[in-house]
Amino acid sequence: MNAIKSLISDQWNALATLNIRSLLLQGTNLGLIVTSALIVWKTLILFTGSESPIVVVLSGSMEPGFYRGDILFLYMSSKPVRTGEIVVFNLEGRDIPIVHRAIKVHEQDDAGNINILTKGDNNSQDDRVLYNEGQKWLERSHIMGRVVGCLPYVGQVTIILNDYPKLKYLLIGVLGLFVFTSNE
Amino acid sequence: MHSIWHRLNSLLTYGSTVLLAVCILTSATDFLVHKSNPVVSVKPAKIEAVSRGPEGDWAWMSVDLDADLSSVFSWNTKQLFVSVMASFSTPKNHINEAVIWTDIITDKAKAHIQHVSLPPQWAYTLSAQDYALRGTPFNLTVSWDVMPIVGALYMQQRSFSGFQFPSEYFKPPRPGRLKQQKPPGQIPGAIV
């Protein structure tokens, strides 16, 4: 208990003794962290060709392959989609992309026009019930990438933080405080 | 200097770095160490219908499938997603691919799949976007998507060619009675 008390008072003292010069320095440090995270993300986008190279599974429609909370890595190549591949697609007017398997492909000759039908491994019906009204096929423009790798459980953190926004703000607050009070 | 927070921070950073390295190495064994020798064959057992649908021709086919995929399993394999797919070329589309049957295999001991006259599985259909299935040659392909516990996925397949749809439309007197296999262990209506 004493240890925690002294910890808090340490942080408080550090905060109280901040002068304008070290405040600026810490601010710059924070900016550096944020921008380098942004650089890493944008570089990933550049090299994977996918607008969101890392996604978290939010539903059980691909169980037992992918569970809620798994992290998936996407790659968007110029190769056309073929059946059996797991693709991530975004429907017009929807916020959340869907990760399902291509089960039917019709590709026209030169124009490269492609019609794709998808289905979740754990669903008994194909995805026409999910598509927008009147939509029968996915096209090239809907596809955001193919799943090339997975990392189980780790995405659970983001799911918890999204389910409990207060926890998210608390975490950001605490981390922010540490950035400002740490002296390195 | 060496407050508990610093120690905790470096422990966490170091721990996750080691864990990430182990994950990458584990996935690498699938590609560098693991050798597989799958034995696969598939052929049409009976084409039960070729007919006109509202948007193009459709066909109904049962297949004979024999696939021994047990050697594909490694210590990092969570499951194999096995699918049988028919592919053909029509005037409208130079590539048509339609999955007609799938299975999820989570157990190495059950990775030798043998089916005679395997009926098409619900909700898969074999169809074209034009009226050109009659007399068209087609291939049958068995694909298995190897899904790991951690790391990279990969897909392998074997194709068999030399098959042809019948040259005339035909269907059984009561097409509604065409035998269809319900997918096992799935909850109907559970979407997303």
Automatic annotation (TrEMBL), chain A:
CC terms in the record's Gene Ontology section: signal peptidase complex
GO MF assignments: serine-type endopeptidase activity; signal peptidase activity
Residue stretches spanning the membrane: none
Subcellular location: Endoplasmic reticulum membrane
Xref: Pfam families: Peptidase_S24 (PF00717)
Topology with respect to the bilayer: Single-pass type II membrane protein
Residues of the Peptidase S24/S26A/S26B/S26C domain: 45-148
InterPro entries (alphabetical): LexA/Signal_pep-like_sf, Peptidase_S24_S26A/B/C, Peptidase_S26, Peptidase_S26B
Keyword Metal-binding: no
Domain of life per record: Eukaryota
A biological process from GO: signal peptide processing
Described function: Catalytic component of the signal peptidase complex (SPC) which catalyzes the cleavage of N-terminal signal sequences from nascent proteins as they are translocated into the lumen of the endoplasmic reticulum. Specifically cleaves N-terminal signal peptides that contain a hydrophobic alpha-helix (h-region) shorter than 18-20 amino acids.
Protein name as catalogued: Signal peptidase complex catalytic subunit SEC11
Gene source species: Apatococcus lobatus
Classification of source organism: Eukaryota, Viridiplantae, Chlorophyta, core chlorophytes, Trebouxiophyceae
UniProtKB/TrEMBL annotation, chain B:
Pfam families named among the record's database cross-references: SPC22
Residues passing through the membrane, by range: 12-33
Keywords, alphabetical: Endoplasmic reticulum, Membrane, Signal-anchor, Transmembrane, Transmembrane helix
Keyword S-adenosyl-L-methionine: no
Assigned GO CC terms: signal peptidase complex
Primary role: Essential component of the signal peptidase complex (SPC) which catalyzes the cleavage of N-terminal signal sequences from nascent proteins as they are translocated into the lumen of the endoplasmic reticulum. Essential for the SPC catalytic activity, possibly by stabilizing and positioning the active center of the complex close to the lumenal surface.
InterPro entries: SPC3
Protein's name according to its UniProt entry: Signal peptidase complex subunit 3
GO terms under biological process: protein targeting to ER; signal peptide processing
